[in-house]
Amino acid sequence: MLNYVTTNPGKVREAESYLRDGTVAQLDFDYTEIQAAELAPIAARGAREAYRAADGPVLVDDAGLFIEALDGFPGPYSSYVEDTLGVERVWDISRDLDDRRSAFRCTLAYCDGEAFAASPDPVDRGDRVAAAATGPSDRNAADTDAEEEADADATLPVKLFEGYVPGRIVAPRGDGGFGYDPIFEHGDETFAEMDTERKNAVSHRGRALEKFAEWYADR
Ligand code: IMP
To answer: Which of 65, 77, 106, 193 has most ligand 1 atoms within 8 Å of its beta carbon, as the pocket-test mutant?
Structure first.
């Protein structure tokens, strides 16, 4: 059984549509979200922590909205920005940009405690060190010590799968979806105007799940 680590049952349903019936279960586990400039170290760190808690195979996903003209903002901080500023304010910030191209990105991190014989690219300690180096400067030594201790498994192999969907920021339209969906236009519809099936067919998470499912079938 594969544990999909999320508080959102919708993500589990989406994963089920890519994997064999009965192979995915939701694991409602609140892993530590480190601060990092990229999604990969956040997801990898979460997968290691969740693997220890679940004592079995886990899949963690981390996603975000990257606005090109704002150097990728809000990116890995998308959750925090949605909770604090809100999606309408992100539109306010973006409305006067000449170039409103953006993308949703999703990184899936898989860990089952075993090495990946066929995979030369497990995330190793180097990624964690890089993540710490790009973190905000106001982290104190105690935070860092706690993270070091909590991530004592940093050499535990993690396999990453990335998905991406391009689009542009527009004035909010549509009632469906969640998060930034109303301000993200792909083709001539916002994600909030698409039904779930259509969104999943093009979404960042769908693309990452597709890659994962293909690899996992042989695992
Ligand atoms: P998470 O990593 O899936 O929790 O997402 C991080 C942030 O990106 C949250 O603010 C989500 O609302 C937002 N987000 C992730 N995926 C999507 C999506 O498919 N549509 C809209 N917002 C998303």
So the answer is: 65
Cα separation, 63 vs 53, in Å, equals 22
**Which residue bears the tokens 């969740």?**
50
pLDDT higher than 60, residue 149 = no
Query: How high is the pLDDT of residue 92?
Result: 98
Is residue 79 within 6 Å of ligand 1 at its C-beta? yes
Domain boundaries, position 25? 2-216
| Alpha carbon 22 to its chain's center | 23
User: Region 126-133: what's the mean pLDDT?
Assistant: 39
Q: Which helix (H) or strand (E) holds 212?
A: helix 204-216
Q: How many domains does the chain have?
A: 1
Which secondary-structure segment (H or E) carries 80?
helix 78-84
- The answer to whether the CB of 172 is under 6 A from ligand 1 is no
CATH assignment at residue 31 = 3.90.950.10
Q: What is the pTM of this model?
A: 0.84
Catalytically active residues are: 62
For the segment 67-79, the average pLDDT, to the nearest whole number, is 97
- Where would I find the H helices in 2-58? 9-16, 39-54
Ligand 1 center–CA 84 separation, angstroms: 14
Angstrom distance (rounded) from CA 100 to CA 180: 14
